[in-house]
Design brief:
- By secondary structure, this protein is an alpha+beta fold.
- Helices cover 46% and strands 18% of the residues.
- The protein has a 3-stranded antiparallel β-sheet, with no helix packed on it.
- It is rod-shaped, with a radius of gyration of 27 Å.
Length: 82
């Protein structure tokens, strides 16, 4: 995980800063901001986690439907009169 430090008066970085520290004691109006290279890593991790939850939920629902259909067919084979 690479961090890139940029002084706020030097250039305009992308995204939100991960951490900000004021240097007002020695340099009034100055601050240091730390940015993750390649965007906000926490948003990307959250998006991946959401995708995992959606896929897992979908597969569990599909598994329940398949097992239910199998159980119904076995029940009908065991009790053909009903």
């Amino acid at each position: 995980m690479m961090l890139r430090a940029i002084l706020s008066r030097v250039c305009k970085p992308e995204g939100r800063p991960f951490a900000t520290v004021s240097l007002a004691d020695c340099f009034p109006g100055w601050k240091i901001e730390l940015y993750f290279k390649g965007g906000d890593i926490f948003d990307k991790a959250a998006d991946r986690q959401i995708a995992i939850y959606v896929w897992t939920g979908s597969l569990v629902i599909l598994l329940i439907l398949v097992v239910g259909a199998f159980a119904r067919s076995r029940y009908r084979q065991a009790n053909p009169a009903q």
